Amino acid sequence: MATLEEIRKEITRLDEDLLQLLSRRKTLSIEVARSKQATHRPIRDEHREQELLERLIAQGRPLGLSAYYINQVYRLIIEDSVLSQQAFIQEQLNGQGGDGASIAFLGPVGSYSSLAARKYLSRHVGAIHECSCSTFQDVIQSVESGQVEFGVLPIENTSSGSINEVYDLMQHTSLSIVGELTLPIEHCLLAATETTESHIRTIYAHPQPIQQCSNYLQTRMAEVRLEYCDSSSAAMAKVRELNSPEAAALGSAAGGALFGLMPIAERLANQTDNITRFIVVARKAIDVAMQVPAKTTLILSTAQKAGSLVEALLILRNHDINMTKLESRPIQGNPWEEMFYIDVAANLNDTAMQTALRELNAIARSMKVLGCYPSEDVRPTQLPAYLMPTPL
């Protein structure tokens, strides 16, 4: 019988083999992207994805692998393949990519925005030059001035809703939205030393995590003092500096590890699926290949009369353009007037979209396209009901 050490060595060898195979698979997926680029075929082939999963589930069962396990593993593999192919085609179209890029974000390294910045650029470039900023306005100014190429900004959260400050800043900038991404937000209570929840007297956090964890804070930590910080990283840095069993920060476990903090409570958000959507901005707009799923964001000010917004939305419906987001914000300096932010699942260069924009421009008081960019919303491959996996 093999010893524990021998078994672990065999697992290590298998893990190394798996990494080599995954790398080879990713290389082949880029070759697929080259072919699709030449033949103008869509990035996703959901029928093939479904056939692949059905075949793998059938092959895995005799090997002791459940449908749930196979589906979870290949969901990540398929998503990475789709996004990598999209990134490759976009780089070829816009002349992007290369050895490195610079990006600005809110807070020091370790903040949720910095994790989002790394995630976005990981598929596009090699080295990353990071620029931490203390405010959203600083992020925008860093890009506008040419100090960095990109800026990443949180725009909405499934728990706390839209981030109004970012929407307001986008009214006045000349920057274009060139990308989006989502990041699961898993809030933890982080401490610098061995302690428990009952010993905590002060929690340091950015306002967003406080809002997103309000149920936990009100029920479990009602007597604890809350100290607001400019970012989650600033909160973690403060707790590291204090090194006290009575101080804790709200943030991610990954971010906390960068500051030597340990989680003493996990999964604290009001919603189980707590996800933040980020936008990426740059000085120059990009083109999106027609085979890549695209989103277009615009801001619209309608006439101050009944039915004006409905009239505008009917134009989108009449051209079969799906609206994915509608957000209203006050027009600064114009009391009681509103600007509408609209996201649509459409390519700016599509004929229907161009026609709709002309019609919107004819009835709107003002209109501005903020950007057209690849959609990173990769829906899971649908399986037949009898194959739908369930957790064990």
From TrEMBL:
Major place of residence: cytoplasm
Keyword annotations: Amino-acid biosynthesis, Aromatic amino acid biosynthesis, Cytoplasm, Isomerase, Lyase, Multifunctional enzyme, Phenylalanine biosynthesis
EC code: 4.2.1.51, 5.4.99.5
Transmembrane segments: none
Catalytic reactions of this protein: chorismate = prephenate; prephenate + H(+) = 3-phenylpyruvate + CO2 + H2O
Family annotation (Gene3D superfamilies): 3.30.70.260, Chorismate mutase, Periplasmic binding protein-like II
Known pathway: Amino-acid biosynthesis; L-phenylalanine biosynthesis; phenylpyruvate from prephenate: step 1/1; Metabolic intermediate biosynthesis; prephenate biosynthesis; prephenate from chorismate: step 1/1
Every ACT domain range: 297-374
Domain Chorismate mutase: 1-89
Origin: domain of life: Bacteria
Cell location: Cytoplasm
Residue intervals of the Prephenate dehydratase domain: 102-283
Function: Catalyzes the Claisen rearrangement of chorismate to prephenate and the decarboxylation/dehydration of prephenate to phenylpyruvate.
Protein name: Bifunctional chorismate mutase/prephenate dehydratase
Taxonomy of the source species: Bacteria, Pseudomonadati, Pseudomonadota, Gammaproteobacteria, Aeromonadales
